[in-house]
Design goal:
The protein is of the alpha/beta class. The protein is 32% helix and 21% strand. It is built from five helices and seven strands; from the N terminus they run H-H-E-H-E-H-E-E-H-E-E-E. Strands 3-2-1-4-5-7-6 form a seven-stranded mixed β-sheet, with helices on one face. The termini are far apart. The mean pLDDT is 96. Bound molecules: S-adenosylmethionine.
Length: 160
Amino acid sequence: MIFIILILIFCFSFVLLFGPPYLPTMRKQIDSAFDILELKKGDTLLELGSGDGKILISAARKGYKAIGYELNPILFVVSIIRTLPYRKNIKIYCRNFWNIELPQADAIYTFLLKRQMERLDSKLEKYSFRPVKLVSFAFKIPNKKISKQKNGVFLYDYSK
Ligand SMILES: C[S@@+](CC[C@H](N)C(=O)[O-])C[C@H]1O[C@@H](n2cnc3c(N)ncnc32)[C@H](O)[C@@H]1O
């Protein structure tokens, strides 16, 4: 029992070295994100830090493809199980999204911490598949123009 608790503590805490801890976006903000993104059926949403897979499932239910990156192995397994019925449209990888070349997507969803927003902006400035839209829940990118916002969700456009 102690061993299981130690594994749980380890999985949820080592992630803090690379990004925010697990805290899910609320339903109202998920809906707001999709409202301001205005995606078309068949578009791809990339989620950086995809947690329990809830947002990926919402995307698949709307007819979008979804790709998630989640570093916490427990959340990765939970999200793989939760998204099984949508396997055709959802892919999830247990990877640190800072260390990879981000795949092609029409939009990106994140719920990071304030101190990671500038680093994310630099990464997206170099993103190979622009134009792309970014929605960030809770935190803004310093000195970057917000294209739209709703209920604490901010939309940014990275043009070609
Ligand atoms: C604040 S939670 C948001 C979860 C989900 N996106 C949501 O909004 O409901 C941040 C998630 O990102 C994951 N995470 C943090 N840093 C990461 C990294 N560098 N690579 C992949 N996942 C990361 C955490 O484990 C956590 O599940």
